[in-house]
Each structure stands twice: as structure tokens, then as C-alpha cells.
Design goal:
The protein has about 290 residues and is an all-alpha fold. The model has no long low-confidence stretch (mean pLDDT about 85).
Length: about 290
């Protein structure tokens, strides 16, 4: 499928950014309870996962370029090209993340402020990424929906992956109260990320219908409302999986409250996997334009 490189590139990089941001948040809580050294030891592999996902995403981006080495020529147009800005900030974000991950593995200590700063660099990269697709002649991308989709994936996919990774690393180190706090916070973040994007869809579809009538510009697809309708079932499936994941995550809080990261870990794993699957399908729906 021709959409695979774009889906892999955007979703993996955005998931990486989400993992860094949520790791910074959860590290603050874990550090207060068990100390910096133990918290760093437990959570540093999560940084490695974030770095690997980001690098794999960047690697996937080269597969849909005719001549990947031409990306270097795009750097000359930083002041006017979103592609150039995206390349620069992706390099800055991944370079900072990989370097800091190496430092953490060598020194064995993490700093929440540095993590947060790297996360901000990642958000800037995601903004440039969204602007790159927004400023194209592809009608279905030329709407604020693009920004909502990309930033929503940062917090939905990123939160789900981070919760599962953190749960596996700290399940025997922290209290059940803190574990429940993490699950609840993840549930809230994922719910907001999915709900906001679902809420904007009617306005997005109305804009597609109105724009094709009022504009004389040459854009693709020529019938954007029809192109949107063709992926209706895929979009419904994506939202459905997301909702199911949210319900399972909520059920894990209710059912496994005394031990969410031990006896409740299989349920959390299933919920997080389903949420991520929903993000994959949603991204396919976004890029699948015939």
C-alpha cells in the first residue's frame, strides 16, 4: 500500500514525541515516590524506545522520496519551505533525544526539565510536519483538521504506548495509588485527544463540501467530499477502536484498582494496543486519497 511510508513516518515520529512528553510527566511522579536513581533506572529504556521509534519514522520518510539525498537541498529554503523546517526540527529533536538517551544510559540519571525541553522540540517538529501537509494542493489536507489529527496522535498514541511501557517497568516499584493516577491521567488524555478530533469532523466535512463549490483553484482530489466518503467505514472503524480502547482502560481502573500494573496489566496492554490500532487506521484514512 502506497500510504505505508507516510503512515509509518508521521505516526512513529508523533508517537515518539508523545512518549517523551508523557515520560517527563510520569517521571516526575515516580521520582517523588522512589527517588531519582531508581526512577531513572526503571524508565530509561522508555527513552530508548522513543528514540528508536523516531529514527524508524525518519527512515520510513525516505522511502517515499524519489531521491532521498535531495532532502539536503531542501535545507537551503528554511525561510520559505515547510519541508526544510520539518527536516531541520526533526533532526534537532531526534539528535537531542538520541544524545540525551545515551547520556542517561551512561550516567544513570534523568532530568525532567531536559525531557520536557526535548518534548517541546518534538512538538515544534510535529507543527512543521502538519504545516507541510496543510500547505499543499491536496484539498483533504488543507484544513485545521490536519493539525488536530497530528497533535491528537501525539497524545493518544503516545500516551497509550507510554502507559504500557511504564507499567511494565515500575509495576513492582510504586504504590497502587500512583499506578491508578497514571492510568486515570492516560485515560483522560486519550479521551480528550480522540473526542476533540471526532468533534471537528462535521465541521471538516462541511468545509470540504463548501470549498469545492466556492473555489476555482486546481486541487486534488477533484471531489474531496466523495474522497472523504470513500474512507467512511475506515474512519468509523478507527474511531470505534479508539472508543473501545478507552472503555477497556476505564474498565481496568474499576476492575483492577488495587493492582492496576500487576493483575491489571493484561487488560491495560489490550486497551493500549487497541488505541494504537485505532490511530493506525485513522492515519490510513487521512492519507488514503484516490
Amino acid at each position: 500500500m502506497s500510504e505505508w511510508p507516510l503512515v509509518t513516518f508521521t505516526l512513529l515520529v508523533q508517537s515518539s514525541v508523545g512518549i517523551v512528553i508523557l515520560t517527563a510527566l510520569y517521571f516526575c511522579w515516580v521520582e517523588k515516590e522512589i527517588g531519582n536513581q531508581r526512577a531513572s533506572q526503571a524508565m530509561k529504556p522508555i527513552l530508548l524506545v522513543a528514540a528508536i521509534l523516531g529514527c524508524l519514522g525518519l527512515l520510513a520518510s525516505t522511502t517515499h522520496m524519489g531521491y532521498p539525498w535531495n532532502a539536503f537541498h531542501a535545507l537551503r529554503h528554511f525561510s520559505s519551505s515547510w519541508l526544510s523546517r520539518e527536516i531541520v526540527f526533526a533532526a534537532v529533536y531526534l539528535g537531542a533525544l538520541c544524545l540525551y538517551t545515551l547520556i542517561v544510559f551512561i550516567k544513570g540519571k534523568m532530568n525532567r526539565s531536559i525531557l520536557a525541553l526535548i518534548g517541546v522540540l518534538g512538538l515544534v517538529d510535529v507543527y512543521c510536519m502538519a504545516s507541510l501537509y496543510f500547505n499543499t494542493s491536496m484539498m483533504t489536507w488543507m484544513h485545521a483538521n490536519t493539525y488536530f489529527m497530528f497533535f491528537g496522535a501525539v497524545f493518544a498514541a503516545g500516551s497509550a504506548l507510554t502507559l504500557r511501557l511504564v507499567a511494565g517497568r515500575v509495576k513492582n516499584l510504586i504504590s497502587s495509588e500512583l499506578a491508578n493516577k497514571m492510568v486515570v491521567s492516560t485515560l483522560a488524555i486519550v479521551f480528550i485527544a480522540i473526542a476533540v478530533r471526532m468533534a471537528i469532523q462535521p465541521f471538516y466535512l462541511e468545509w470540504l463540501s463548501n470549498t469545492v463549490i466556492t473555489t476555482n483553484a486546481i486541487t486534488f482530489p477533484h471531489s474531496p467530499a466523495d474522497a472523504y466518503a470513500e474512507t467512511f467505514l475506515l474512519r468509523i472503524s478507527a474511531w470505534s477502536w479508539g472508543i473501545i480502547g478507552i472503555l477497556l482502560l476505564g474498565f481496568s481502573i474499576w476492575k483492577k484498582r488495587p493492582a492496576p500494573f500487576t493483575s491489571g496489566l493484561p487488560l491495560i496492554t489490550l486497551a493500549c494496543g487497541i488505541i494504537f490500532l485505532g490511530e493506525v487506521l485513522n492515519r490510513f484514512a487521512y492519507f488514503m486519497v484516490k
